[in-house]
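Predict the structure of Isocitrate dehydrogenase (NAD+).
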Amino acid sequence: MADGKKGVVQEIIDMGVKEMNAMAEVSDITGQFRNLLMEQMERVEKMEESAGKKKDFKSLPVITIGICPGDGIGPSISEQAVRVLESVLSEEIAAGKIRLKQIDGLTIERRLAEMKAVPDDVMEEIRECDVLLKGPTTTPKGGSLESANVALRRALDLYANVRPVSVPEEGIDWIFFRENTEGEYAVGSRGIEIPGKLSIDFKVITEPGTRRIAKAAYDYAVANGKTNIEVVTKANIMKKTDGNFSRICHEVASEYPGLVLEDWYIDIMTAKLLDKTRRSDFQVFVLPNLYGDIITDEAAEIQGGVGTAGSANIGDQYAMFEAIHGSAVRMIEDGRGAYANPASLIKAAAMMLNHIGFPEKAKAIENALDICVEKEKAVVITGHEDGATGAEFTDYLLSKLG
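Done. Here is the predicted structure for Isocitrate dehydrogenase (NAD+).
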């Protein structure tokens, strides 16, 4: 065979092999995607089956509060939050009505060693609790180790991330209801990649998942005398996912005739939170997972920084309360762990007490925080040696509890 013909034949063979390899890659990827679809459909069925089955804390003989310090500055600020809980719940703890359960092992070292977002024995201990007060945990950049928060929210079905922000002198009294188990986070560590070619991640919005976060927001609004609901999406671009989120929120709103519902796109809403002529009009926000993650950090910064904000992760059977900031590993590396601000986790502890049926004790902590952080400011934390330690701040706060 002439050399020219051999060359043409070889090119045809090479093209065929290349096409077969590409088809094999696509086949593998479509198989992965099919598995994801089936898992999400199974999750939808479970949500539909468990709808409306909520834990009644008043009926429990003992309420078990899990204390999970986490890593980085987590143990430092958790220690101070526990001091506050032990003070305000001293009678209930002594009577055996409240149990504080220390849960260790949710550290980055342990999680990396086992390559599990939450080690099995730690998850088992957490499931034995009714609520969890959790310190921040480190999530490595890249790799395949999932965020511990994302794993806990999914495993315990903590679908409502609730974050209040208050700046009374500016007329700001906001509360954010961020859907906590879906969006980009639901399968964020399960994307697909063809090395050197492309990467694809997935976003998931479900009908029952959106209905229950909308109802949680609207129920809160009715119970607390709120009238305005802001639904925040990017439905003009993400037409299937965000489009359905907006549609479902409007359908649920028809059951709440006293509420005023407004649609916003996430980009303009981030700007409007800074608009002093408009932002005092906002009250209750409901939004998908990723947008809620971003905009609540912005809102916390307006309040005084992410170190001032607590966060509730609420499901029908479990609830987890935490600070909204990260583990601040650099502070530990610099030897400044003792100077970490515990205010955010103490705020989260107050939210937890309100959730389990102690609103007066929660209010007492919130009032003390207001005095210490906003009014008197006699003990100030800077994160450095020129400021107070977390323990000194907590001593100050405890003196204001009365």
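The CA atoms of residues 136 and 327 lie 5 Å apart.
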